[in-house]
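Cont'd.
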Amino acid sequence: MAIKSKNIQAIRHPVTDQERALRQGHQGGVLWLTGLPGAGKSTLAFALERRLFDAGKQVYVMDGDNLRHGLNSDLGFSQEDRTENIRRVGEVAALSAGAGIIAITAFISPYRVDRAGARRAAGDKFHEIHLSATLKVCEERDPKGHYKKARSGEIPEFTGVSAPYEIPEKPELEINTGTLSEEECLSIMEDYVEANFG
Amino acid sequence: MAIKSKNIQAIRHPVTDQERALRQGHQGGVLWLTGLPGAGKSTLAFALERRLFDAGKQVYVMDGDNLRHGLNSDLGFSQEDRTENIRRVGEVAALSAGAGIIAITAFISPYRVDRAGARRAAGDKFHEIHLSATLKVCEERDPKGHYKKARSGEIPEFTGVSAPYEIPEKPELEINTGTLSEEECLSIMEDYVEANFG
């Protein structure tokens, strides 16, 4: 997106990323969870927040249900608004990463181009994690009853049913949340953080 | 602003504010600097970030020049866009405060109603700091040459010249950046944080 405001320079923060990382023992970054509805994004995000906090990390979850009360309360569910929703989440996650936090985001984020925007915002601090439970598994779980409503037409443009989910081509991590237990998924993610945020 | 998306519940974070505060030795919160152009907002914000970081705090500056490259890159300088700019900053600052950070924001934010929105977003974590250098002082300083351009009409609707600055009625702190030195201003703000974020 073009920057509308001209003649503006990004100011360097006096406190550097390196200083922040040294202080807290890890880098800031974005763990971008993506996957079908029902793949376990929010559940794992909040459980991982608990895990990483208990392991001494600075960590914070941003998820759709949360952000739509505040920053994105002006957005609905049109195609345009969904894209803007993901754009803002990507920017806020990047800001948080710059502040030294491990930001865990839990959004379906079905489009590659939107996820690519979030990756651009955070640069090399971006870690895409594909929770790859299959449509069959997610629809059988249907924790919120949304698949049923989507099949009946009550919910239009529902990802996986009547709107596409574009599978990540090169995610930093893929976790099959359809076959692994929650505990196994959490361990994989925690190990990933230990290995990559040092 | 009305919430467009219905049937959404704010999820409770498993990690509480209290746990975060206990871990890092201080509460999260928002230090909302407001004042005329040239009052010293960005200068003091970044210098305070340095100070507070060196004192062991989790702290991060958000200022206009920075955010307009990312989150708010779709916004210009129309009245509507300025209001939306401040709304988003208020929401992101509130989120950061929820993550345990001391978010320092440096925006003119000339309208009471906009600042009230930012206060609502952060609740009792919001601390309004009025940098109250007078128009005369700020215009004499004119660090960016903007007042001169505003007087000549080259910049329209410039706060203090051709657009209003609504003075905070009950800021948590007022600092006359026209008469105090930078060092004095920083000491006042640091003392305020030590007294109120414990």
